Amino acid sequence: MSRLTITAVRLTPILVSDPPLLNTQGVHQPYTPRLVVEVETADGVTGLGETYGDTTYLRLARPLADALPGHRVSDLNALFALAERVCGDAPPATGAATLDVGGQRGVLTADKLRLSVVSAFEVACLDALGRTLGLPVHALLGGKVRDSVDYSAYLFHRWARHPDGVPCEPDDWGAALDPAGIVTQARRFAREHGFTSFKLKGGVFEPDREIAAVLALAEAFPGMPLRLDPNGAWSVETSLYVAGRLRGVLQYLEDPATGTDAMARVSAGTDVPLATNMCVTTVPEIRDAFTRDAVQIVLSDHHYWGGLHRTRELAAVCRAFGVGLSMHSNTHLGISLAAMTQVAATVPHLDYACDSHYPWQREDVITTRTRFRDGRVTVSDTPGLGVELDHERLAVLHGRWLDESTYGHYRDRDDAAAMRAADPGWQAPSVPRW
Ligand SMILES: O=C([O-])C(=O)C[C@H](O)[C@@H](O)C(=O)[O-]
Ligand SMILES: [Mg+2]
């Protein structure tokens, strides 16, 4: 047996606390599901990966975890074929056939769901391989081209706390429901983490209110890059209105309208660059969007593109088409931040600061929290990803996941359902909302 042979795979679903961040579909649940993957080799080395933890992903991850022992952590290309063979075509657990109701990351095809699972195994294999060879993950991807990766502050309209009666872990951020609140939030992000670019999650209030928030940010942080992302909540006309009002203010406008067709129409009517993590999220979506110039920037996401090698492949396609590259984030922990940073360090034309929800996450499963300095994360040169699992914390967060009577309904992220705790009649708005 090779020292690289996988001898065991552990899957640990967890529930992680999340603040009441608002988006166009509703509000974040007080706890969000994540899955931690540990891959152990014959050498006794363990590699770590992290991905979405909703029931659908767990259903796909279990057969892959069962099938993996006996394979080598270096056989990454074979991982995809293995997953295709053993995972099956699990349909979305929610029954929402094509669109993601939680993370707002575009279509939810069987391929994309499976790749979102495979990504955590690929990262865990790379971590184990790097630890075995004494090389950082970026070296396994060809080597870093930068020593630190730039991240952008991810601003949200939010409530001070989750609705009464809902179990939660309170924080001290307070509410941010108007332009002044958003600027206060941005100042704290800049003070605590040194961020020098800002993204505002939009699609929550009428467009004029969100335009006012962006203009207030422009006044508070002159010259700093600003982005607005309503997750496809606007019509083409509204998108063009907002683009006109924020021309020269925004670095880019992200997913103003839903779908490649609408994005192409917006793109044709404005010179404000358009970015997406919703209409280009799978390989089959690339050609149409790029040939129609529907987007000028793609937000990669190693989770749903299938891992770090696939992220680099996406980067190559973007380069070929002259499309810029940034990075998307959903609620994630330190393992994924390490993976994002390792791959981002290897992509020369990653010209935009990456998104990260990490500053909102006060719970983690790694022993030492990753810090942003001047908005940047230092690229670790330690073998593997450069993070260690905190087994005690993992057990606590897994214990929450196991406690079905208190937390069972948070095992699947559903922002519209979370909103109903405050507004019982709430339904995720149909698009375009404005
Ligand atoms: O850039 C994005 O579209 C996201 O980050 C999607 C996320 O789901 C975000 O909207 C959220 O978590 O509310
Ligand atoms: Mg987005």
TrEMBL record:
It is an enzyme of class 4 (lyase). Residues 179-273 form the Mandelate racemase/muconate lactonizing enzyme C-terminal domain. InterPro entries: DgoD-like, Enolase-like_C_sf, Enolase-like_N, Enolase_C-like, Mandelate_racemase_C, Mandelate_racemase_N_dom. It holds the Pfam family MR_MLE_C. SUPFAM superfamilies: Enolase C-terminal domain-like (SSF51604), Enolase N-terminal domain-like (SSF54826). It catalyses: D-glucarate = 5-dehydro-4-deoxy-D-glucarate + H2O. GO terms for molecular function: glucarate dehydratase activity. Its EC number is 4.2.1.40. It comes from the Bacteria. It comes from Streptomyces xiamenensis. This is glucarate dehydratase. Pathway: Carbohydrate acid metabolism; D-glucarate degradation; 2,5-dioxopentanoate from D-glucarate: step 1/2.
